[in-house]
Amino acid sequence: MEYICSKCGKKESVFTHKPCCDCGGLWNLDFRPPKFRLEEIDRNQWSLFRYRSYMGLTDDSWKGISMGEGVTPIISLDDKVMLKMDYFMPTLSYKDRGAAVLISHCRAIGVKNVVQDSSGNAGNSVAAYAARAGIKCEIFVPEGTSPKKIDMIRAHGAVCTVVPGNRDHCADVCRDRVFSEGAYYANHVYNPFFYEGTKTYIYEVYEQLHRIPSHLVIPVGNGTLFLGTVLALEHLLDSGIISRMPVILAVQSEYCDPLFQAAESGARSPVPVTCKPTLAEGIAIGKPMRGTQILEYVRKYDIRFIHAPENEILNARIQLAKKGIYCEHTTAANYAAYENYCRQNGVPEDCLITMCGAGLKSDH
Ligand SMILES: Cc1ncc(COP(=O)(O)O)c(C=O)c1O
Ligand SMILES: [Zn+2]
């Protein structure tokens, strides 16, 4: 298993501490899992590592690091909509899927300290798993990040640096640190091991339902759940487990929609946008670093970008809470976008929406 540069095709050992290729291209993982079979799932392992036969793992470091992440229930909201309760996680968001694998890899290759930038949830996850692995950690978050997310990062013993300006600027400040000081960039967008974790979202759905619903609602800021989802669906397709890709309804905030606009206009890279502040802080990404890759998939499969209308996010959150589901605003945006889609296109018969962040984490 090696890294392969997404730009120039150069290969590199996964033991490297370099955040990306010398040409600036991001790494992909050169890893082809064996054909997917339900019988290969380790049913005695109550975490996402039950799918480890299909995940690119460096060694067994995950055994000391896993906190039982994944294996989240699917519940029905009504007769056409199911919710995957991905906020039932050690740090209350789906980012634990990726962080558990990424930090296991860091442990495997002897990383001593990591840095990461985040809108909050990925930082929470990386801080928690780094603490568990005994790795020093610094997280950069943009100003305005929900205070509870910052408190949680600090509770895990990580340094949390609040950077004035927006989310994209925060990433630039963190990357300066990576490139000038050589800190290991435990970043959910750059590091392909994160996607080995988010792939398990789909493996779980298949194990639980014995099918993949016809429509999947997935939020897309940098697209870490989206990319893991597509990789795993391609794997199921190659394995002959599913015969066609489902429709992916990819959610962007109407206030920050570089990929929505690119998909509309047929552009091959994200459209430069000026993001306005949005309640959906988790998807407020103006410059998605894997945007070109995401748009390649948009041309290949039935992927439809949909807007989360800003003035409907709070109401969506209230509607879900009235049915017992208390999710964070970025997650309520998924539901608001789904309703927006239904108004324009009719109600899909068989739809799964991710509930990817817990309500107690966002204060607005
Ligand atoms: C709850 C929640 N949903 C969705 C996202 C979007 O993830 P990504 O930027 O990887 O697409 C985030 C990112 O922080 C998040 O915290
Ligand atoms: Zn390269």
Give a quick summary of the entry.
This protein is of the alpha/beta class and 364 residues long.
Tell me what the structure shows.
There is one protein chain. This protein has about 375 residues and is of the alpha/beta class. The protein has 2 domains: about 75-95 and about 195-360, Rossmann fold; about 95-185, Rossmann fold (3-Layer(aba) Sandwich). It has 11 helices and 13 strands. It has a 6-stranded mixed β-sheet. The chain has a 4-stranded parallel β-sheet with strand order 8-7-6-9, with helices on both faces. The chain is globular, with a radius of gyration of 19 Å. About 50% of the residues are buried. Bound molecules: pyridoxal-5'-phosphate (PLP) and zinc ion.
What key attributes describe this structure?
364 residues, Rossmann fold, 2 domains, six-stranded mixed beta sheet, four-stranded parallel beta sheet, 11 helices, 16% strand, globular, binds pyridoxal-5'-phosphate
Q: Could you say which small molecules are bound to this protein?
A: pyridoxal-5'-phosphate, zinc ion
**Total count of domains:** 2
Decide which structural class fits the backbone.
alpha/beta
CA radius of gyration is: 19 Å
Side-by-side strand order of the widest sheet: 4-5-13-10-11-12
Main pleated-sheet profile: 6 strands, mixed
For the record, the CATH class of the largest domain is: Alpha Beta
So how many helices?
11
CATH architectural grouping of the largest domain: 3-Layer(aba) Sandwich
Order of helices and strands: EEEEEHEHEHEHEHHEHEHHEHHE
Which geometry do the CA atoms define? globular
CATH topology of the largest domain: Rossmann fold
Mean pLDDT level:
96
Percent helix: 25-40%
